[in-house]
Amino acid sequence: MRILVTAFDPFGGETRNPAQEVLARLPQVIGGADIIPLVVPTVFWQSLDVALEAIRLHRPDAVVCLGQAGGRNGITVERVAINWMDASIADNAGQQPVDERIDAAGPDAYFATLPVRAMVNAMREGGFRANISLSAGAFVCNHLMYGVLHFLAQQHLPVQAGFVHLPYLPEQAEGKQGVPCMPLEDMVRAIVLGITVLAAADGC
To answer: What is the mean predicted confidence (pLDDT) over 17-24?
Structure first.
């Protein structure tokens, strides 16, 4: 089994992105599955192009996208991606679409095809704060999740895919009063647990 794991670079004035740092620390093999790491730019459309190129090249059995959701209390595995762009800030290329559909002819939403509940349960059992989320937002994270699921559906590819949001690192939360965070090593261990469940669900 091969799992493509993507992560965004820093955005919104931040110099670090927990997703990128977690990705850099993941083992090459998790639960018997080969991990294919990929950093994508926090840019509408460009991140999707890079991810789809990797899917075509590597033909993974699953795609797990990682991103930052500063302000969330723990790791959140996304259940739904919506066909909508409504950016409260500009992406790293200065784009800031407002009230726009991602695909004019596409469905309003896609559900993640990852074992969302099982992944969250595994993280919780490991002692980490984790929850299912019903909103991936309307920024580049949601755009990537929707775009990947849309592509897989159109191509009729039996590839599981979804998105996991990570909270701030402690260093990012400094000076942001009351903003929750999580140590990097905890995020890495939690994501490994989630991916292990994904690999096991595929019979790996």
So the answer is: 98
